[in-house]
């Protein structure tokens, strides 16, 4: 295949990737966006195979790897529940980071496989300074992404404590490792790529740094961490795209890196958190519960499903606020049925989504779309927050931290200043939750003890189904 044709096909793949991201910006076009992204990847991979001009054995080897990997991915995707999607994404990010490290190593050890011209026995390939810097940065970011994603996966999966793990001198240690990595990058570059030991030291130190960067970050910040690691994986790919002179890798990496960074910024804004403070960790540390729960009446009004059915059936406007509790219980279909029954009774029904509800961006939107909830009934925080004061009922189903009034009322709370859904302004708040325990951030919610709050304790799906039966 000619270089011009390959460049054109890579450009087509890049355009498809951009259109895919555009499609993923809305639930209505997300499916089309996924298809466009798949088409773009098929074009990019196919073009690369044609450019490489592989023999039959090479094609069989790569084809076999694609089939095996695709089969494993398909099985995982079909079996994984939506509640485990964040850790799945973190796990896949780790593979992207590992891939960046392995590709960089392959380039160092067998550069002739990436460039035209015969290898000369006993003579090492002469690397350019820029290529070595790009390669080192790509490998370092890839290693950080790999180990950091593994830690994020373990925290999200419950294999290790989600609370911040901090120790004295942690930031200074991170700084020292960062400086050491920079020194070995300079050493590798100065050696013209001959000091292979320096490359592996860079990778080893980066793996350690990835762990140290993520362990001090609390569970409440994990959605931002997943998005951040997504961005890291993109920048690692982009750096290697420069080194390998591969347009598709460069475009794809830049798109993933920039979109991940933008998403991280949006999420930090939604949590009233600076990106630097997330990296430094500490959110959700001990002490938040006492601050959020201070000076409040401890009386709780507990209701039944029949109480909830009667109140909502006679309401004029109900705003439903889904959260992670709904996802765990897989209550979205029962919630859709409840919404349809309320609309049949003439009740105005809408859904309020917080930017960081659940464990990753769009988590609630996907679940509601799975239950065929109309898109025009689903609203983001900034579009619906002013509506709670006109609502008869705010039906909160598992959304704890994003409805916590301490974010506005308690300056001592760790979440003070975070934009939250102002459900307490509704005439009645119905809160479906298994218990009165704190949310994922480890902070008590004083909303439970307000006069206009009715706690519906129990499994979200069973409670919702019981309310549906009570409305018949």
From TrEMBL:
It comes from the Bacteria. GO terms for cellular component: plasma membrane. Pfam families: PNTB (PF02233). The transhydrogenation between NADH and NADP is coupled to respiration and ATP hydrolysis and functions as a proton pump across the membrane. It is a multi-pass membrane protein. One of its GO terms (molecular function) is proton-translocating NAD(P)+ transhydrogenase activity. The keyword Hydrolase does not apply. This is NAD(P) transhydrogenase subunit beta.
